[in-house]
Amino acid sequence: MPTSTPPAPSASPAAVHGLPLRQLLMSLGEPLVELQAAPAGLDVPVRDVAILDPEDPATASPGELVLAIGARGRAALPALRAAGRAGAAAVAVKLDAPGQADALREAATEAGVALLSVRRETRWEHLDSLARAIIAGPDAPETPEHNAGDLFSLAQTIAVLTGGIVSIEDTSSRVLAYSRSSDSDEVDDLRRLSILGWQGPEPYLSKLREWGIFQHLRSSDSVIAVDPHPELGLRRRLAIGIRAGAQPLGTIWVQEGAQPLAPLAEQALVGAARVAAAQLVRRRREVSADVRLTQTLLIGLLEGSTGPQSLATHLGLDLRRPATVLAYAADSPGEGRALELAMGEVTGLISVHTAARHRSALLAPIDSRVYVLLPELPAALPMTTVRSWAQEVVAAAGEHLGIRLRAAIGSTVDGLAAVPESRAQADRILDAMGRGGVGLDVAALIDVQAEVLVSEVLALLQDRPGLRDPRLSALMEYDRRHGTRLAESVLAWLDALGEVRVAADSLHIHPNTLRYRVRRAEQLTGIDLAQPQQRLLAMLQLRLPAEGPA
């Protein structure tokens, strides 16, 4: 039967009376779950979370959010019907294909129970911990689950960047989140016992106190290394305190596995500690609301729909200090891996790296790109410094995630009011890089000025057919219909400035073949390539993609 914990006598009012489904969905947010059906409305109370294992009989209890683990798509129909009969609040299920939602929505409507679809990359244990923390509310007693959620994702990001095994603990050495480990042989005794008991075992903690580790973590922002002690079952590890000003909030531990930690592990930990601090300053619901507001204001500023004053007031930023925008885009990671999942991993990596370099950095994913606002920059910060930060992120994404990132550096502007200009320039650079012909992974406008302008002219020609020469369009159509390569040959000849042998070599054809193709193109279209203006337009228009299948 589903695993669920009945409310304890000291449970919060939300856990006893139920949290409206509407409020739970607002707190969980669209990135985790999506509402598919709510036949009883959004005010049904959610009192608890139940995990339904696929081998268990389909049962539920009133007011439960049932997590149908392992029952993808239509396999979740029994769980939906059982939840409806029992008066459960909602059922969460993962879908294998978009078309499965229709049958499940129909079943949920008939059963009178809400249906939530869970993103495929979401880990069930994260959703379970986060939903329980939200239902418990800010007045509930502290538990390891209370600050879970995003901390698990952060722990996994740190593990990827450092090459180690990560745990995040509070000031009482209680485990709040930890990374996955594929090889149990790499885990030492301290890690194993801490995870099993959700708290570091006292004999080990006393040794860490004796060695002065905890004193350092409480009083310093720097990383400390703990030497291996095989006689105690301890491997080498790094640690850093999570702090808000002088207030200690917890600790991040990275245990070394079978391989040495990454060379930049300490730098990654500095950024991770700052990201973790933002998540631990306030309780889960307060943090969620604050993060959503910050994201809304930041996206509004980047898009130019919201002025800078709101964001500056919310975060205490100086409106007049220099700022710049970095924009990142990922090449498709290929088959078997959703780009959305990849971008989620990239976003975590960018946030940790950027926080390590600039304390006030802000990050916002918009569509398929990730934008980083660097406010309050030093007036004399060299472009080479920002470029090196972006290059670190690109290199880390390739090394740790196997994803090729492109990064564009927007102009440095005089204050937050001009941030939309910096974002627009970063987008122009990324657009040009995405069209090809730019052999750089990180670029500012000075690096790709010509490519950006040509890219924008091509985009104009693409969007406005009336600006094109119909004779060149007819040449491309002729190639499409007859399987010839006249347009390609003309473009190669133009790019080579009329050097026939150079152009022929680039196409792997004989020079006489190239000469014939160029003459044939002029005969078919009436174009005079001796005219500079016609050559210029041909060099541009023939770069447009051919339309329609061959």
TrEMBL record:
Segments forming domain CdaR GGDEF-like: 310-431
Domain PucR C-terminal helix-turn-helix: 486-544
InterPro entries the UniProt entry points to: CdaR-like_regulators (IPR051448), CdaR_GGDEF (IPR041522), PucR_C-HTH_dom (IPR025736), PucR_C-HTH_sf (IPR042070)
Listed transmembrane segments: none
Pfam families tied to this protein: GGDEF_2, HTH_30
Coiled-coil ranges from the UniProt annotation: none
PANTHER family: CARBOHYDRATE DIACID REGULATOR (PTHR33744), CONSERVED PROTEIN (PTHR33744:SF17)
Family: Belongs to the CdaR family.
Protein name (Swiss-Prot/TrEMBL): Helix-turn-helix domain-containing protein
Source species of the chain: Kitasatospora cystarginea
